[in-house]
Amino acid sequence: MISREVLSYKDELIQLRRDFHMYPEVGFELHRTSQKVAEYLESVGLEVKRNVAQTGVVALLKGAKPGKTIMLRADMDALTLQELNNVPYKSKIDGVMHACGHDGHTAMLLVAAKILKAHQSELSGNVKFLFQPSEEKFPPGGALPMIEEGVLKNPDVDYAFGVHLWSQLDCGKIGIRSGALMAAADEFQIILKGKGGHGAQPHYCKDPVIAAAELVMALQTIVSRKIDPFESVVVTVGKVQAGSAFNIIPETAILQGTVRTLSENSRNLVKESIKRITQGVCMAHELDFEIDHKDGTAVLVNDEKLTDYVRKIAEGIFGKENVVEVPPTMGGEDMSFFLKEVPGVFYFIGASNSQKGLERSHHSPYFDIDEDSLLVGTQMHVSLVLSMLGGKNDYISKGC
């Protein structure tokens, strides 16, 4: 059940979310967004640091007594996508849209900060509110540069938590999972270098197109023949580029793709296999090659004890029937880098509602959320902090 205190902020939550939705910004260019975030936090009375990792914002709430430090994180960036929804709060920026819920993430954390400030005297410990740029554009993404600039220090963060509004769950549901929740998301490019010539005289050439076709098929054997069937791995070639005319064998062919894995062992195995298979195909066709393999987000791993703790809080508020165990997703999320540094939990807030016609997937030009989900996420932020730092349980004293 949503508390009266959180419920009283419903209009403010919706107003904030719609403002961010109408004026979306991408990557690190979040100048309007970060200014609005910082001004809101300052008006609440928090210590605010601007321009972290260019346009990130970090606010600190010091409790009345010493204790652990909890970090709550929200991402703020939008996508380069033309919104097709016909709503009063439709994006006013051509070709840019909040199609992944980050407008809602930002609004929820702002209001949670305001509510928790009112409970400052009850807290034993600190809360860092972290507003991150460039979650969508990786590399480099916003998490790593924020870590490099010391957001986990002064005071040192003990636990980190984040949420994602989730179109695959109904509003009112919370999705959670211990261990690996989201995949490492890597990118690769392979350039095959042959010898071009006339299409009518292939025997004088070294054809990279034939090799590219063979390589696309060969790479699919990595998952089917090298990976344990119970391990989730995706190898996708999404782009093949070669040639300029129907009767010319080109000098080069380029393949680009993505690799998604849920363990470091699989991640390394796939990387090695791509190189080995490419070498074999190129040797057979007498080609040279270059491989550029870019590591993206890490595997996002939720701490087991903290996950159980968050689950119990959610069940206490919303009932066991509304807290579901979700399967891992092969999407990437750079919250993973924070969770590599400190234990924590990333979990999903249901945001769809078929009765309201709100069930389109993330990154769709028709994506939208049931705004009642903003209350759920805000309630979880507030309840988690008050439970851990408010002296209402013995979780931290047990040394978990």
Structure notes:
By secondary structure, this protein is of the alpha/beta class. It folds into 2 domains: 4-183 and 299-398, Zn peptidases (Aminopeptidase), CATH 3.40.630; 184-297, Alpha-Beta Plaits (2-Layer Sandwich). The protein is built from 11 helices and 16 strands. The strands form 4 sheets. The chain has an 8-stranded mixed sheet. It has a 4-stranded antiparallel sheet with strand order 10-12-8-13. It has a two-stranded antiparallel ribbon with strand order 7-14. β1 (47-52) and β2 (56-62) form a beta hairpin. α3 (31-44) runs parallel beside α4 (102-118) and α6 (208-219) packs antiparallel against α8. The radius of gyration is 24 Å and the shape is elongated. Mean pLDDT is 96; it is low at 394-400.
The CATH superfamily of the largest domain is known as Zn peptidases
Low-confidence stretches at least 5 residues in length (pLDDT < 50)?
394-400
The CATH class assignment of the largest domain is Alpha Beta
Tell me what the CATH architecture of the largest domain is.
3-Layer(aba) Sandwich
Strand content: 25-35%
Structural class: alpha/beta
- Helicity range: 25-40%
